[in-house]
Amino acid sequence: MGKELFAGAIARLAETVGRLPYAEIHGAENIYLAQSHLSEDGSVLVCFLPHTHTLDPIVLNEIFLRPELAPYVKGKFGFPASVKFTQLVAEMDTMGMATVGSKAYADRSGFELIPIFQPYLLGDPRYAHLTDTADRINLKALLQMKRIIKTPSSLLVIAPEGTRNKTNGLLRADQNISGLISRRNTNLLVLPLTISGMRHQEGHLFKMATAKIALHLGPILDTEQIYQIAKNHTWLDESMGDFSPIDALMFHAVSNLPLDTLSTSVDPRGVYDSINIL
User: What is the DSSP string of 131-187?
Assistant: First the structure.
């Protein structure tokens, strides 16, 4: 009974934090396109960047996804989450009651939590032996995400960086995500968005009530447009490998949307700074 009460309290707190009075959304035309696409049994992949705050997913859900897109979803609604917030791996320390709260919040919001095993966790000596477990969990997550976006009128939300960004510039996107952007999936639209104002709130939970948060959306793309961007660009540094579809999506986002500037010496576009791309 105690866990249930605590889980409910966390869920309600998360929702309260998410209802920010000073939140702004820019690019409303992209909302209408996504709503219309979902209504017509299309699926939408939302990619948000940068991922800098623990509460990014909650804020994004409360001020945008739940009121604007979720009502149009007739299929599935999925959101990846660190395996730390699940009880999937017995050997791994979880986030305690936050794990219970995360599940309760997902249930209340109507989305599936998709456990992912982030690569940095293998750098922890306690988990270094879990390589096979990590591969198994991440393969299952990728297949689950593919099923979601292939389901008519479904919504999948991801942070392409794959983990919280603690630097002043964007990290390279998790290349496995390119597997979600299949040219054959002509029923998929991809909506990039940037979040500004969150980095400054890390560690200051109660300041969130007056935080000035802004979401900048779009332009929304279909998979063919993303592949054309990938085809037209390459990395200046050949050791980076292919300029993949998810790289193309990230480059498209930073070329069209504003990012918080946190350091005068570091471009907020990070690896996606145009000086790195031909």
Answer: HHHHHHHHHHHHHHHHHHHHSTT-EEEE-TT-S---SSSPPPPPGGGGGGS-TT-TT
pTM: 0.92
Record the tokens describing residue 93, joined without a space: 């320390």
CA–CA distance, 37 with 35 (Å, rounded to integer):
5
- Using pLDDT thresholds of 50, 70 and 90, give the confidence band for residue 262: confident
- Continuous segment of H or E residues that includes residue 224: helix 223-231
- In this prediction, residues 20-48 reach a mean pLDDT of 93
Sign of the Cα pseudo-torsion (65, 69, 71, 74, in order): negative
Say which residue the tokens 């909506």 belong to.
191
> CB within 8 A of 118, min separation 6: which ones?
82, 83, 162, 163
Predicted confidence (pLDDT) at residue 214 exceeds the cutoff of 70: yes
Which secondary structure element, helix H or strand E, spans residue 78, and what is its range? strand 77-82
Which residues fall within 8 angstroms of residue 52, CB to CB, at 6 or more apart? 164, 165, 166, 195, 198, 199, 202
∠ Cα 229 230 234 (to 5°)? 115
Give the pLDDT of residue 1.
47
- CA angle, corner 118, sides to 219 and 74, nearest 5? 50
Q: Cβ(95)–Cβ(84) under 8 Å?
A: yes
How much is the pLDDT for 17? 56
Q: Please give the DSSP secondary-structure letter assigned to residue 91.
A: T
CB 235 within 8 A of CB 140: no
User: Under 8 Å CB-to-CB from 188, ≥6 apart: which residues?
Assistant: 42, 43, 44, 45, 149, 181, 182, 222, 223
